[in-house]
Structure formats: C-alpha cells, structure tokens
C-alpha cells in the first residue's frame, strides 16, 4: 500500500472544530506534527528555539577575521600570557613595540 498522507498540522482549532491541517513548514513535535503557527512555543507566544542538529556547522562558530586573530595572538604572546617559544615571543614583542611607535 502506498503512503499518500502528507505531513500536516494536527493542531485542533477549537473555535472552528477542525484540525489545522496546514502542510507548509510542518515539523514534528512532542505533541505531534505542527505548522509554524501552532508549534508548542508559538502557542505560548514564545520565539522558536533554533533547530540544533542539521544547522550548518558555521552557525556555531564566531568567525574571526584572520587579521584580528593574529593581532590577539601577537599581543597575548608579547605579554607572555600565551605560551610560545623565545623567538616568537621576541618577534611578538618587537611587533608590539613597532605598533606602539607608529
Ligand atoms: Zn497549524
């Protein structure tokens, strides 16, 4: 037998005495399938929780421009807060001195 039932919102519209049955953007919730207007959070007047798994990986990272990252690194190394070898430490201190001079 072929499954022809499309996912549709199962929210009961009490005033209209029928189920919502909207098929657009329906997602599965603990309470069943719900359209965006009838998610558990929408019914409580709360903003939707962003979906977790399935989001692009970059959504979880804060992109730092390389230039900014290297400045942070240099300053941390120059201040001795960041472990590095003596050569890198001296180079970073020189870079800091140059930055202050300019
Ligand atoms: Zn609905």
Instruction: Characterize the overall form.
Output: rod-shaped
Main beta sheet: 2 strands, antiparallel
Distance between the termini: 78 Å
- Supply the helix-strand structural class: alpha+beta
Helical fraction equals 25-40%
The small molecules bound here are: zinc ion
Which ranges are low-confidence, i.e. pLDDT below 50, for 5 or more consecutive residues? Answer: none
Walk across the major sheet and give the strand order.
Answer: 1-2
Query: Total number of helical segments?
Result: 3
Number of domains: 2
Describe this structure in words.
The chain is of the alpha+beta class. It has 2 domains: 7-46, no CATH class; 66-101. The protein is 32% helix and 10% strand. It contains 3 helices and 4 strands; from the N terminus they run ββββααα. Strands 1-2 form a two-stranded antiparallel ribbon. It has a two-stranded antiparallel ribbon with strand order 3-4. Strand 3 and strand 4 form a beta hairpin. The N and C termini lie far apart (78 Å). The model has no long low-confidence stretch (mean pLDDT 80). The site of zinc ion (ZN) has 8 residues, from loops.
